[in-house]
Specification:
The longest helix is centred in the C-terminal third of the chain and has 36 residues, at 23-58. This protein is mainly α. It contains two helices and no strands. The mean pLDDT is 96. The protein has a domain at 19-59.
């Protein structure tokens, strides 16, 4: 039980050292991440569609 208590105390100490993002930074990084996901999704979907058409024409 003492080990668990020490672990929890050390976790609390470490979390106090963490630099948490502000609302503005969080919003900026969220928009950037979602944008990249959408761009890559569109790229891979378009690539898949083109390769499917090529496979249908060839095969």
């Amino acid at each position: 039980m003492k080990k668990l208590a020490r672990f929890v105390i050390s976790v609390k100490k470490e979390l106090k050292k963490v630099r948490w993002l502000g609302k503005k930074d969080l919003a900026t990084y969220s928009v950037a991440t979602i944008s990249f996901v959408i761009i890559f999704m569109a790229f891979f979907s378009l690539s898949d569609a083109i390769l499917s058409v090529i496979r249908t024409v060839i095969g």
